[in-house]
Amino acid sequence: MRIEVHSDRGGYAPAIILFTLSLLLLSFPGRCGAEELFPGYSREVRTQAHRVLQAAGPGKEKALANEVRRLRKRMYSHGILSINVIPDHVFRRADREGWKDSLASTFRVIAEVSPLSVQMWAWVVKEDILHLRLSELLADFEGLSGALRGFGPALVGYAAWIISFASAAVCWFAVWISLALFLRARPSLELDISRVFRLPMREYLSPLAAVVLFLLPLGAGFGLAVVVCYWMLFSVAYMRRGELMLMSTAIILLAILLLGGSMLHLLHRVTGDAPKEGWLGVDGYLPQQWPAEARKGHVPVGGAAPYWLVDFSKARAAMQMGNSAEAERIWTGLVEAGRDLPEVYNNRGVARAIQGKKKEALSDFEAALAKRLEDGPALWNAYQVYLQVFNLEQARLLQPLAWDRIRRISPYRFRPSDMEAGEWLASPLPVSQLIRVIVQRRGDLVRLAGEGEYYRMFFRPLTPRVAILFLVLVWLSSVVWKIYSMRVWVHNTCRGCGTQTLVVGIREASDFCNMCHAQVGWGIRVGEERERRALGIRMHRNYVKAVSFLLPGSGGLWSGKELRTMVYVAFLSLSLAVLSLSLGAQEAGDIVSELQSIVARWAILVTAVLWLAGAVWGIRSFEKMQKSIGITGERG
């Protein structure tokens, strides 16, 4: 049953929510000491590193390779695996002197002494793609993936980027859905507000009341997720089944967003404020800050990493600074504490070998192999000791396996035939143990969620447990309210012509008014009735077009294409997520900011294309729907 209520009122109520998130690549900012480019390293390493920087330049790959080889020997003799600051300084120099286009070949040479520099590998892969160097792309991409897996800050940064990207996409999806559903329901909502509250001068006060309802949670300072749920609840009574599916998807994604923000906060607790310059980045940068001292079995203040991982990092730093005796003491303490990992034994063996303790070193290398039979660094180091003590039979047996294993270690480019005695291979910080620490603390995801800024941005003023309950209640309330709304009279807006009618029952049965069902188009009778219908159709069409432009693809909801609309919004949200994360690009003159700028430019282009395509598709879908019910042309 329906009662038609003709209205000559129409208008626009556009709303756009703008928000930005930080790009994860800022986890790898460039660092340069004002007085010393390589602070903390031994004098001979610093001197040779400066020579590498001086040798870098376009067309100087051969001379650069010689200097890199000399630096590699000095690095390995101190247990240094990678000096990640070298590509940063080379990039700055290339930027100043104008030879950034030649950086890829220079970086490939430098990769031998900076294999854990993620930004360097990312630049090389970018150059391979742009210049279609497919033969080199695979090897360079393997180097990039190896650096991501093997360097602690890179792994944590990559995980944080994935979480941030997914969270940004969820936010854009939920905001789009809530705005589109609210604007879809707005014409009917305004009439129901005036009917329920018996507002005078409804032509003016009803739109004003709808705007107040829309802006109320924003003015109250609620988090974005709370605001989104508020908007969707006001739209429930006017939704079709397909639109209810969109709303349910958005609520589920908001629950995932809650856990994603909690995971970001947990990662921050594990790594500290500056993971690269802190204990976690010891294999690429000598730490400039350490967590507060902690007793064994307790968590360091300001972080969530076990004491033994911090001690592992301290021992690695001592090795790289040339203090092998101190490193040996810390390694021994870890072994006595039960942290007898292959990496610990191998590194203590390297520290002892550097001090000339060949017998003790060999014992440690063999202990590492007993725990991990084909450990590449331990195999190489044991092979070296056998050669130095003239146990040639054992050396001959180990050589094939040792050479084969270290060649396979990515992203390092070990070349056994070019390596000499005294080049020891240390073991990096065991990233797998870091992952285990994070996984073991997964029970804190909900408890710690409310401590991060990320959570407060989206879910304030709710507590974490209340936030989960809130999302459940929003969904249950929407179901209850939808069932109840089918038993009471509410206004419905015809999708074809915009006529408002009082209806009861399933919304799909009342999508179109009687005249649209009869396909009378612009009307039958001439005179005032026809003019009123024509005016209503034009105003409805203009409203849908405006909404479709502001929220591209939303015309698909008026056309009844909810599933296609959801697919489109998913792609648009992914594009907007990349754009949001890349907008933090700064002109810092380093690799990361340059890569951010490139990503931002491409993200803007892709987003603009998707936006325009969605607007055009939504408007055309709506026009086709109107044509199917006899409404064609600009006027009757």
Topology:
Elements: E1 2-5, H1 43-55, H2 61-76, H3 85-97, H4 103-110, H5 118-130, H6 134-150, H7 152-197, H8 202-219, H9 224-235, H10 241-271, H11 307-320, H12 324-336, H13 342-354, H14 358-371, H15 376-388, H16 392-407, H17 431-440, H18 453-459, H19 464-485, E2 490-493, E3 500-503, H20 514-517, H21 528-550, H22 555-558, H23 562-582, H24 591-628
Antiparallel strand pairs: 1-3, 2-3
Helix pairs in contact: 1-2, 2-4, 4-5, 5-6, 6-7, 7-8, 7-9, 7-10, 7-23, 9-19, 10-18, 10-19, 11-12, 12-13, 13-14, 13-15, 14-15, 15-16, 21-24, 23-24
Describe the structure.
The chain is mainly α and 636 residues long. It folds into 3 domains: 2-20 and 159-265 and 453-628, no CATH class; 42-79 and 83-150, no CATH class; 339-440, Serine Threonine Protein Phosphatase 5, Tetratricopeptide repeat. It has 24 helices and 3 strands. It has helices at residues 43-55, 61-76, 85-97, 103-110, 118-130, 134-150, 152-197, 202-219, 224-235, 241-271, 307-320, 324-336, 342-354, 358-371, 376-388, 392-407, 431-440, 453-459, 464-485, 514-517, 528-550, 555-558, 562-582, 591-628, and strands at 2-5, 490-493, 500-503. A 3-stranded antiparallel beta sheet has the order 1-3-2. A hairpin with a 6-residue loop joins strand 2 (490-493) and strand 3. The protein is elongated, with a radius of gyration of 32 Å.
Helix- and strand-based class? Answer: mainly alpha
Rg over C-alpha atoms, rounded to the nearest angstrom: 32 Å
The largest sheet, given as strand count, sense and whether it forms a barrel, is: 3 strands, antiparallel
As for the number of domains, it is 3
Largest sheet strand order: 1-3-2
Uncertain regions spanning at least 5 consecutive residues: 1-35, 294-303
Q: Classify the helix fraction into a percent range.
A: 55-70%
Percentage of β-strand residues: under 5%
> What shape does the CA trace take?
elongated
Mean pLDDT: 82
Number of helices: 24
Distance between the termini: 28 Å
* Count of individual beta strands: 3
Give the ordered list of helices and strands: EHHHHHHHHHHHHHHHHHHHEEHHHHH
